[in-house]
Amino acid sequence: MSLISVEDAVARMLAGVTHLGEESVPLREARGRVLARDLAAKRDQPPFRASAMDGYAVRAEDTPAGAWLHQIGEARAGSHFSGTLRPGETVRIFTGAPVPDGADAILIQENARADGERIEVLEPVAAGRHIRAAAVDFREGETLLQAGRRIGTRETALAAAMNHGVVPVRQRPIVAVLSTGDELVEPGEDPGPDQIVSSNGVAIASMVAACGGVARDLGVAVDDKQAIADAAAGAEDADILVVIGGASVGDHDLVQPALSEKGLKVDFWRVAMRPGKPVMFGTLGRTCVLGLPGNPVSALICALVFLKPLIAAMQGAEGAEPTRLLPLAADLPEVGNRQQYLRARFVEWQGRTAVTVADDQDSSLLATLARSDALIIRPPFASAAPAGDVVSVIDLAQALS
Ligand SMILES: Nc1nc2c(c(=O)[nH]1)N[C@H]1C(S)=C(S)[C@@H](COP(=O)(O)OP(=O)(O)OC[C@H]3O[C@@H](n4cnc5c(N)ncnc54)[C@H](O)[C@@H]3O)O[C@H]1N2
Ligand code: MOO
């Protein structure tokens, strides 16, 4: 049986993706959305020379220690002083206020002593000190956030400072999530002795929300072609249908037969990865269909490798999981023909942060996944790796937050 590589599978899946439409949303509601256009500054920041400290606006040359200055006014944030400083004069100033014309430094108040309107200089100050130049942060017209950037806290702050109250973003993909299996009951229900709680549906929906999609829970369909086909009808207007379970080769693995009758075109099935081999991708009309293996850890790792980039691509964003290189704290054996995703923990090893794998990598073990800090990625046919060898690692706290 031939398996497609993870790299080829992801590339094939992304090759057919088109961007979703664009919409405008208030910046306050834009968290997690992806910019559909570049965002340029609508003004200079700061728009004027601004004081960085509370104190006195001065001419630096007037400030030998012991000099006395005459206070002629006050400048506050939001209210400038309209005159011009002449020799021997100062203006009381507060952080964020426009620096008056004629002043070239701020004498901080700790280095001054006020006696009515007479101000004694306790420490000289150099020209330019504690003044932020106009537009030192950015200039009007400068593009600071590019299309494709996901809006988090930093982007929100910058877009706001650029004076964007409303931002152009990509629509959120609608992701229908269908679990399959006679054995499944929803979390919190009263399972029979042969039954299993459906953890995958709710977990994938959580991931969809975290990736900026809109999850539509289609619940659980029993292992029956008609039941699966009927339930999948709830995804007709969805951008993505995720079907969980029934992906393998057993007599009760009916997802492909059920959806084929509705017109599913399978692009790939079975990928050279472990866990996750039975993952399937195809299209049903305009809906992308991702078939995830039922084993809970396989489902989540496949969602990380395929669903996250798919959702990101529809929004015009980068979705590949960032990796970093860390040394192994213990030996690993050689790899077979499937790329491995090994649950692992961060440990201190020879004075450095290193990774060590969990003993049992069975793809049903969610507690092990929750205890793990990282996934070690090992490519197909990699040779045995001794402790100290560097491996590629995904940080789970970010990847499956
Ligand atoms: N003869 C073979 N058997 C299996 C193969 C194979 O190549 N040849 N592949 C194995 C691999 S690898 C995996 S992964 C599983 C994939 O199975 P399915 O996708 O068909 O999933 P199911 O059989 O429906 O379920 C597997 C397992 O996962 C549990 N499950 C299913 N859905 C959920 C859910 N929503 N929440 C929690 N747990 C779920 C289910 O109860 C089973 O225990 O096949 C191997 N077999
Ligand atoms: O490879 Mo399956 O996806 O491990 O259990």
UniProtKB/TrEMBL annotation:
GO cellular component term, pick one: cytosol
Signal sequence region: none
Family to which this protein belongs: Belongs to the MoeA family.
Protein name listed in UniProt: Molybdopterin molybdenumtransferase
Parts of the chain that traverse the membrane: none
Catalytic EC class: transferase
PROSITE patterns the record matches: MOCF_BIOSYNTHESIS_2
One GO term (biological process): Mo-molybdopterin cofactor biosynthetic process
